[in-house]
Design a protein that fits this description.
heterodimer, A: mainly alpha, ABC transporter involved in vitamin B12 uptake, BtuC, 2 domains, two-stranded antiparallel ribbon, B: alpha/beta, Rossmann fold, six-stranded mixed sheet, four-stranded antiparallel sheet, 10 strands, binds adenosine-5'-triphosphate, binds magnesium ion
Chain lengths: 382, 263
């Protein structure tokens, strides 16, 4: 039995490695033609996977059976990315940004995916976290690690403040309130003098850990990795943590209750669910994730201004959740990665970016409203 | 002994229309009361008043001796009032079992902190919930038990009604409100439904059930007492035999039957 399992594990890791190498190669291409060729190839693979049932069942069976091997292999490969991209820090930068957006999207998923609360204020919590920790670091020399907690908590409190007026409204009106809130935060950041106004906050110190500043290159196993790698590994941990929290919430009474509210609010009420409280809870948790991501962003880039937290950021995150899959944490992360990387690959079409987001949302809602990766039924062991 | 639920001149106006008009109603523990009346006579609205979805414009609702007027819906549900809906409001994109699990919400108490940091507690809660849910489903139909991970929206109408009743029962209610449970069912399925209701009564002896029905065969078989509404007013009350001889009731229904015959 054991040799057979090992054989299957090898096949599984080979499949993972294949996709990983494909991904790395894709990241390294920058000609529009080649990028499109890659994309067509991915889509072809996807279609084949869908049509060819035997291959699909074998593969999914393999992953289910050897969950731990699959997970470990995946983690190990991701950890080698900075080594592969050693010569091109820009690619590592894109990965860091993808991770930040993954955290934002996972946070928003509690609302948009689980509860069907369409919140367009992600940029606000992102910005509040960023500004809070940046101000603390610049004026009071508070360390990044404490700032991470403060940024998250403060954003969470603002989430609560936003949640309360939102509970007086529903559906489109609720979305309008969140848009207004996002704009208010943006305008305030622009107009307060203590936030630096439109000039923002420069010279935000990088985090340091055990005397190692994140601005310094990272030496690992005799390799000199560009400084972005520090943040890459930090983000890797944070995305892992967010995933862990999201997964646990999804598979609990709380996640189920959110889903009930999404499906039918009246029926939820009639089953003893305090809809208002659960929606506010989703606001707070979402904002916490946003605040954490904002903190990392401000210390990573070292400079923030209101432009970084404009309405468009919220739109992007909403698009990520809709594209990836409502209430499928894996899908949400894929959505975030896709929509971070693709715009970088299509720099030539920068001017049409917002138009493309709009097209993606409309196309998805028309043809595949559940997203690329739909929510799966919860299965309980028994 | 006070009754399980009692309304006193319960009234609601929608603009000029009194959809429920000064209705006095009582139900005791262990009793099944049929609520009948022509279309638009205010039956569903009466349920919506009892569950707090609408606020009455007049009158009282006493449940277990306590005044319920003004309480939000979820608090009323937490005190043991469960219902089903005329138009079936399952959580369509969730599994059958998840639907029933949500019904247990009022008795469970794990929160977000437990979900993230006290996993063993949450897992025990889920385990107990699943066990209870499967037991409930198995009492209603073996088919639902084997398909408990099916999407609720993929079920045929009759099964949806059953899941809805299971979901309502999952909260161990003291008062169960059924709004036309046999709507859209074949005679054989209706027969089965009546058997199910009988089983529920047998198992939970002290449960009070109010059942709205257009199918008089169902009312005759399951209701201990019948209340008739017409234009929001209670026009008759009594055993099935008493009300089936009642002039006012015949008049209210004949009007309707004539309309039906024309349609
Ligand atoms: N929210 C509302 N706003 C205005 N009028 C309403 C509202 N809800 C119900 N009504 C009116 O109240 C009256 C009673 O409706 P209700 O749904 O309670 O009737 P019903 O007895 O359940 O009828 P059916 O047998 O068709 O289900 C109807 O005339 C209906 O139009
Ligand atoms: Mg009705």
């Amino acid at each position: 039995m054991l040799p057979r399992t090992i054989g299957r594990a090898v096949i599984l890791l080979a499949v993972e490695a294949f996709f990983f190498i494909l991904f790395a190669a894709f990241m390294k291409t920058d000609e529009t033609g080649k990028v499109i060729a890659f994309l067509l190839f991915f889509i072809g693979l996807g279609v084949m996977f869908k049509k060819w049932e035997k291959a699909r069942l074998t593969l999914t069976g393999l992953f289910k059976e050897l969950k731990i091997v699959a997970g470990a292999g995946f983690v190990a490969m991701l950890l080698t990315l900075p080594f592969i991209f050693q010569a091109s820090p820009y690619l590592i930068h894109i990965c860091v940004m993808a991770g930040l957006f993954a955290i934002l999207a996972l946070g928003l998923n509690f609302q948009l995916g689980s509860t069907n609360v369409v919140n367009f204020a992600t940029a606000a919590s992102y910005g509040i976290g960023a500004y809070a920790s940046a101000l603390l670091a610049v004026h009071f020399h508070i360390s990044f690690w404490l700032g991470l907690l403060v940024g998250g908590s403060l954003a969470s409190i603002f989430g609560l403040l936003l949640g309360i007026p939102c509970m007086k409204t529903k559906d489109y009106y609720l979305s309008l309130v969140t848009i207004a809130f996002g704009l208010i935060v943006y305008i305030l950041l622009n107009n307060f003098s203590w936030t630096g106004g439109p000039n923002g906050i420069p010279n935000i110190p990088p985090p340091s850990l055990f005397g190692h500043s994140f601005k310094e290159p990272l030496s690992l196993f005799g390799y000199q990795l560009p400084f972005q790698s520090n943040y890459y590994y930090l983000i890797f941990l944070l995305v892992g943590g967010s995933l862990f929290v999201a997964h646990r919430l999804h598979h609990s009474r709380v996640g189920l209750t959110w889903n009930a509210i999404r499906e039918d609010e009246i029926a939820a009420r009639c089953h003893g669910i305090d809809v208002t409280w659960y929606k506010i809870l989703a606001f707070c948790i979402d904002a916490f994730f946003g605040g954490v991501a904002g903190t990392v962003y401000s210390h990573y880039i070292g400079f923030i201004s209101p432009e970084n937290f404009a309405f468009i950021v919220s739109v992007v995150v909403v698009t990520m959740v809709i594209l990836g899959g409502m209430d499928n944490v894996f899908g949400v992360i894929i959505g975030a990665i896709l929509l971070t990387i693709l715009p970088e690959k299509f720099r030539a079409f920068e001017d049409f970016r917002v138009l493309i987001y709009g097209l993606i949302v409309v196309t998805m809602l028309m043809f595949r409203p559940q997203g690329l990766f739909p929510q799966k039924m919860r299965i309980y062991k028994k | 002994m006070s009754s399980l639920l009692e309304t006193n001149k319960l009234t609601i106006h929608f603009g000029g229309l009194a959809a429920v008009n000064e209705v006095d109603f009582t139900i005791d523990q262990g009793e099944t009361v049929g609520l009948i009346g022509p279309n638009g006579s205010g039956k569903t609205t009466f349920f919506n008043l009892l569950t707090g979805i609408y606020k009455p414009t007049g009158g009282e609702i006493r449940y277990c001796g306590k005044n319920m007027v003004g309480l939000p819906t979820f608090k009323i549900a937490k005190q043991g009032v469960a219902r089903t809906f005329q138009n079936n409001r399952l959580f369509l994109n969730l599994s059958v079992l998840d639907n029933v699990l949500i019904g247990m919400h009022p008795q469970q108490d794990s929160n977000w902190f437990d979900a993230i940091f006290r996993r063993s507690y949450v897992e025990r809660e889920i385990e107990q919930g699943v066990e209870k849910g499967l037991e409930l489903l198995s009492q209603f139909s073996e088919g639902l038990l084997t398909n408990c991970y099916q999407r609720a929206g993929d079920l045929p109408q009759a099964d949806r009604r059953k899941v809805e009743i299971c979901r309502a029962l999952a909260s161990n209610p003291k008062l169960l409100l059924l709004d036309e449970p046999s709507a859209g069912m074949s005679p054989a399925e209706t027969e089965e439904l009546m058997e199910d209701i009988r089983k529920v009564r047998q198992k939970v002896g002290e449960i009070g059930i109010i059942i709205i029905e257009h199918d008089m065969a169902v009312i005759r078989k399951v209701a201990d007492r019948v209340i008739v509404l017409n234009y929001g007013r209670k026009i008759a009350e009594g055993t099935f035999h008493e009300i089936s001889d009642n002039e006012l009731v015949l008049e209210a229904y004949l009007g309707r039957e004539e309309k039906d015959a024309q349609a």
